[in-house]
C-alpha cells in the first residue's frame, strides 16, 4: 500500500516544482488588461513599448497579460471577478456597466484626456472595385436596389455604430428629426439581406462570399481587409459625415487597490497618449488624438466631418435606451404592423 | 425470477443512488434552479410580455421548427448511414465511420462559417442552388442545414450497436416465411431499431434546440425571419438584461422538457406494448 503511494508523492512534488518555476521568473508586477476582440494587434504592439518605457523610467519590469473577447462578455467577466487592472473597450456602455457596479470611477471619462479615449475611428463604406452602384453617402444606403452588409445592431458594437451613424446622418439633414431618421434607418435595414454575427463575419460575408454592394465598417477594418484580400478588390468611400467611434479606457479601482498596482496601471494607460502610444495607434489604423501624429499620418486618415454619440444622442446610455433596448427604435422597425 | 431481481449481484445501491442524486443536483439541477430563480426577479406580467413578444414567438417557432425538421432528416438518413456502416463491407469503411463523429468535435463556429461559405451564392454548393431559386445561406433553410450537420452523429451512434445486434438470420427467417423485402424492413427490422432511433432523434433534437455557435453564422439573423431564440437571449445579455434573458431561457427549457417528456413517454409505451406482445 505504502509502496504504491510513492509515485504519487513524487508526482505531487514534481508538479510543485514546476508550478513554482514561472513564479520565480515572473516580473515585479503583472497587469491584466481586459480588452475587446479586435484590439489584439494594437496591444500586442503596445505592451512591449510600455514595458521598455517603464523599465527605463523606474527599473521595474512589468508583465502585461491580455484578455480579449466580445467587449460586453469581457466586462461581465470583470464584474464577476476577473482581476483585470485596466479595461480598454470599444464602447462606453461597457465601461458604464462597471461604473454602475462600483468597480470603476463614475467619472471615468474625466480621468484621462479626450473623454478617456486614446484614439478614435469612424464608420466608412467599403464598396466593390469601381464603385459600380455609385455609393457616396449614407443616403445611398437607403436607395432601392442596394444591398447593405452590417453586423447585428443588437449584438455587436460594430453594428451599433453603423446604426447610430445612419441615424445621426438623417437627423443632421435639413428638416431631420426622429421621425425622418426612423424612416431612413428603416429603409437602410430593409436593404440588409442579413445581419452578420459580428464585425469580422460581416467582412467575410462581403469580401469572400461576395454578398452585398456596400459594407459598413470601421475605418481601421478597411486596412485589414486590404492586407487580407488585396488592395485592388474594393474601394473605401468616406461619407459626407460619419459617427466618431471612441474607445474608452479605465482603471478598475477595486482590483488595483487590492493588488496595489494603481501606479503601474495609471502609467500604462497614460502612456497611450504619449508620442509612441499615438504612433502605435496610427500604425494600427486608429486615428490618433495627438494633432502632430495625425498630421504625420494624414495620407492614411482623410479629413472627415464627424459627430460623437454625446453630441447627437446626449449620451451612450440615452442612445442605448432609445435604440437598442427592448421596444427601442430597432425593435419598432421590426414590429409587425 | 423475482428473487433474482430483488437481490442485486453488486452491493451499494444506497451509496450509488446517493451519489447519483448528488451529482445530478450539482451538475444539472442547481444551475437550472439558479436560472429559474433569477427569472423570478421579473413580475408575472413582465415575464409574459417577454415570452409572448412578437420576436420571441417568431424565434421560438423557427428554433423548434428547424430543430424538429433537422432531427427528422437525421432520423431518416441516420438509419441509412448506420445500416450501411454496420452491414456492408467496403473500402475505407473505418475512415467513413470516423467521419461521422466530426460534427461532434468541430467547434460550432467553424462549422457555421464553413457551411455559410459553401451555401452562399458563390459557394461550391450555393452556386448551383441559387440559379434554381433555392437560397440556403442566410435563410431559415440555412438554419436547418446547420442543425442537421451537428445532429447527425447522435442518430448514427445510437443506432449502430443496435443494428449490430440484429442478426442477419432474422431477415433470412422472415424471407423464408414469405415476407417481402418491405415487410421484412417494416415488420422485423424497423421495430427493433425504433427505440434506439427515438433516443437518437431526441438527442439530436435537444442538441439542435440549444445550438447557437454554428447557426448565427448561416442564419442571417433577420428579426422575425431567421432569428433563433438563443440569439435573442444573447442580445438581451448584451443589454445587461440578465433577468430578461433567463425568462426566454426558462420558456425554452419548459418547451424542451415537455417535448422530451413526450418522446420518453412514447418510448415507454413502445417498450410496454412490446413486452405485452412478447408475453402474448
From TrEMBL, chain B:
<dbReference type="InterPro" id="IPR035906">
    <property type="entry name" value="MetI-like_sf"/>
</dbReference>
<comment type="function">
    <text>Part of the ABC transporter complex (TC 3.A.1.6.1) involved in sulfate/thiosulfate import.</text>
</comment>
<keyword id="KW-1133">Transmembrane helix</keyword>
<comment type="similarity">
    <text>Belongs to the binding-protein-dependent transport system permease family. CysTW subfamily.</text>
</comment>
<feature type="transmembrane region" description="Helical">
    <location>
        <begin position="212"/>
        <end position="233"/>
    </location>
</feature>
<dbReference type="InterPro" id="IPR000515">
    <property type="entry name" value="MetI-like"/>
</dbReference>
<feature type="domain" description="ABC transmembrane type-1">
    <location>
        <begin position="60"/>
        <end position="263"/>
    </location>
</feature>
<dbReference type="GO" id="GO:0015419">
    <property type="term" value="F:ABC-type sulfate transporter activity"/>
</dbReference>
<comment type="function">
    <text>Part of the ABC transporter complex CysAWTP (TC 3.A.1.6.1) involved in sulfate/thiosulfate import. Probably responsible for the translocation of the substrate across the membrane.</text>
</comment>
<feature type="transmembrane region" description="Helical">
    <location>
        <begin position="104"/>
        <end position="125"/>
    </location>
</feature>
<feature type="transmembrane region" description="Helical">
    <location>
        <begin position="185"/>
        <end position="205"/>
    </location>
</feature>
<dbReference type="Pfam" id="PF00528">
    <property type="entry name" value="BPD_transp_1"/>
</dbReference>
<feature type="transmembrane region" description="Helical">
    <location>
        <begin position="137"/>
        <end position="156"/>
    </location>
</feature>
<feature type="transmembrane region" description="Helical">
    <location>
        <begin position="58"/>
        <end position="84"/>
    </location>
</feature>
<dbReference type="InterPro" id="IPR011865">
    <property type="entry name" value="CysT_permease"/>
</dbReference>
<comment type="subunit">
    <text>The complex is composed of two ATP-binding proteins (CysA), two transmembrane proteins (CysT and CysW) and a solute-binding protein (CysP).</text>
</comment>
<feature type="transmembrane region" description="Helical">
    <location>
        <begin position="20"/>
        <end position="37"/>
    </location>
</feature>
<keyword id="KW-0812">Transmembrane</keyword>
<dbReference type="GO" id="GO:0005886">
    <property type="term" value="C:plasma membrane"/>
</dbReference>
<feature type="transmembrane region" description="Helical">
    <location>
        <begin position="245"/>
        <end position="266"/>
    </location>
</feature>
<keyword id="KW-0813">Transport</keyword>
<dbReference type="InterPro" id="IPR005667">
    <property type="entry name" value="Sulph_transpt2"/>
</dbReference>
<keyword id="KW-0472">Membrane</keyword>
<keyword id="KW-0764">Sulfate transport</keyword>
<protein>
    <recommendedName>
        <fullName>Sulfate transport system permease protein CysT</fullName>
    </recommendedName>
</protein>
